Queue: 2 jobs
Job 1
Amino acid sequence: MKKAFITGIGGQDGSYLAEYLLDLGYEVYGIIRRNSTPEHQQSRLDPIRNNKNLHVSYGDLNDTSGIERILREVKPDEVYNLAAQSHVRISYEIPQFTVQTNSVGVVNVLEALRNNCPNAKFYQASSSEMFGSSVDEDGFQRESTKMTPVSPYGCAKVFGYNIVRNYRNAYKIHASNGILFNHESPRRGSNFVTNKVVKAAVKIKLGLQDKLELGNMDAYRDWGHSKDYVKAMHLINQQPKPDDWVVSTGVTHSVREMCDYVFSQLDLNYKDYVIQNKKFLRPEELPYLKGDSTKIRKLGWECEYTFESMMDEMIEHWIHIFKNTINK
């Protein structure tokens, strides 16, 4: 039985990845960062909570002794570093914590791996935000696109990306980067724009909310589904040689287009309810992201979800949640 260790296992990607690996017959270990409201810390893991091959404990990327201890005891075959301060706009409010977690945290895990399980395969959750304002002439961003990040989050992720490449070359560790473009699901935090829009639209439809405040309506993003993207993570760690891969749908939509689709699915016109609030604008905006995932598709990876089917699933999720709340 293969053993996998996942940082950030309680997050959107971590929970889907844990489910996927358990279905493949793995023994899965993971850490979540403790906070003062434990009621929802592990709620995304509810579907697999009773699986005897799942082991979850508290941990933090900035607690090097804890990471060292776990890797020394578990000796995993595969390590997936998904933990991060993952909200781009909030990275402007807490830049030092973002950098400490998203860059130095990567070094901490790599060092623990190098010292305790150097033959384990390592996956780093890199981000399309690393490209920032750089776009190739054909309108895509790919593995060779210049990285010019425009946020503390993006800057920290570039360091994480480069230190993985450095450890790969310097210590011959099987360390790879998955450069993932935006990916969503019903498990996405509701302060991220996709779930924020869907949740608000459903509440408006049910008479539980009047308006929705958003920031930049004309930001374009390449949105895929987390379930598809965690399969790419696993695929990357199965390759005989480590490398870097872009994971994306290759299709882009604006926030405005997303609002139009979601509200239309609920027989509403978003223009009647959505207003712009400057407090949700970033100090430096990132207008456009669209990924070229040709390289990983050559390995056999493909998307099962479309943008529309993903948004429909999220709509159904929140309808179910709020209708149950109303009926109680």
Note: The mean pLDDT is 95.
Job 2
Amino acid sequence: KRHEQLKTAAKVGPGNYKSAERIEAFLVLYFLAVAIQALLERQVRAAMKTHGLRSIPLYPEDRDCSAPTADKILELFGPLRRHRLYDGTDEVKTFWDPLSDLQRLVLQLLDVPTAKYGQ
């Protein structure tokens, strides 16, 4: 499954690298990405069990997902934006897109405070 995620979610493909060290460096980065994805999935799924949730509506048309993948979790936060208003070099104000109820639920499952998203 993780190899599939390397090909799909991380979009790893053939590369034209000039040294073995560069290949090793990129493989280390991809390994870290896959490890973080696995930890993200594990955290959400364990928290779902703890909170007694059998599924959450991550699929299109709010269909339930009983085993969320990192790709779907990260896709949920993809459209969020943050804008900063500057007066010269001074930041005057920061504007955030509002979080949906589902985004708030996933952040709660991940133990991430909504303050990180300006809420």
Note: The two ends are 35 Å apart (CA to CA).
